[in-house]
Amino acid sequence: MLLESFRITGSAVLQIFLLGAIGYFLVKKNFLGDEGLNALSRLAIEVTLPLLIFAQLIRDFRFDLYPNWWLFPILSIFITALGLLLGLLFSVLIKGRQHKLQFLSLVTFQNSGYLPLVLVAALLSPEEAGTMFIYLFLFLLGFNLVMWSAGVYMLTSSRTKRFELGSLFSPPVIATLFSLVFIALGLYRFVPQAVLKPLRLVGDCTLPLAMMVVGGNLAQIRLGSIDKKAISLLILAKLIILPLLALGLIVKFKIPQLIGLLILIELAVPSATSLSIIIRHYKKEDLLISQGVFFSHIFGLLSLPLFLSLYFLLVMIK
To answer: Domains of the chain (ranges plus CATH)?
Structure first.
């Protein structure tokens, strides 16, 4: 039974790997340069993902169907706090203030959007995936607010740097808030299928685009001298202990299956690739971020199928 679960989840992760590999080799073979990769990233973040969020929420989300919708942003903050606490425990073994902060960021913030979206699409039936997309978009509402505030502050760690309120409102956050207001006002009734369908078609491009961008970003990473101790601690904390904690919490509190799957995925995926973007944007020295993002994704090819298989074995098949 475990081998069968591993085969199913391994197949899903393999699909993700192949999509990422396309982006990786496009960059390595110079079909895509910095400008092309930035354009694809902007297209995914500023156009296709917001349209996917809008089309999915307009079609499937209603406040009476999801009365506890507000729990998902809170859940995202809880998961981030859990990563932060574990990161603080392990960071005492890391020397140097900037090394500690970058290590802490890698443990705290996960690849919370792109990988979960593709995993959900590959693992679940269309009906279950539609529900999980709703959960995920609501989850990301809280996560993005924390990531682009506390995450930026943690990595830049400058006492003179002013907080940028605008950084909280990324296009996906705006799309989620706009869609929720749109639905609350009942305006969704006036959106014809002739409009909604092409928006959804464009939104469906998000998943392959996103993984190509992740693969392209990994191809640009300059590893340099590898900090083996920090990377080993990161893999232990991020990709082994956190998903084990997730499984324990899910089983102990008998969390509903799809919500439990969301929690496990968010605590089992690798470090956020956007950490490299933040480091690059604020011109900070990359001491651990690139190494951490790269090796957590490589190790995740093994750890993700393992923990997802255990979840399906312990929870989903009951």
So the answer is: 2-313 (1.20.1530.20)
Cβ-count burial of 60 within 10 angstroms (0-12 exposed, 13-18 middle, 19+ buried)? middle
Cα 235 versus chain centre, distance: 17
Structure tokens given for 25: 């080799």
User: How would you write the pLDDT of the chain (318 residues) with one tens digit per residue?
Assistant: 567 667 767 777 777 788 888 988 999 999 988 888 888 888 888 899 889 999 999 999 999 999 999 999 999 999 999 999 999 999 999 999 899 999 999 999 998 887 888 888 888 899 999 999 999 999 998 998 888 778 878 887 654 455 555 666 778 888 999 999 999 999 999 999 999 999 999 998 887 887 788 788 778 777 677 889 999 999 999 999 999 999 999 999 999 999 999 999 999 999 987 787 677 667 777 788 878 888 898 898 889 989 998 998 888 655
User: How many Å apart are CA 144 and CA 94, to the nearest integer?
Assistant: 27
Give phi and psi for 246, each to the nearest 5. -60, -50
Number of H helices, E strands in the chain: 16, 0
Query: Looking at residue 221, what DSSP letter applies?
Result: -
d(Cα 17, Cα 30) in Å, to the nearest integer?
A: 20
- DSSP 8-state secondary structure symbol assigned to residue 80: H
Residue with token string 């944007």: 281
Distance CA 151, CA 284 (A): 14
Query: Of 273, 221, 266, which Cα lies nearest the Cα of 106?
Result: 273
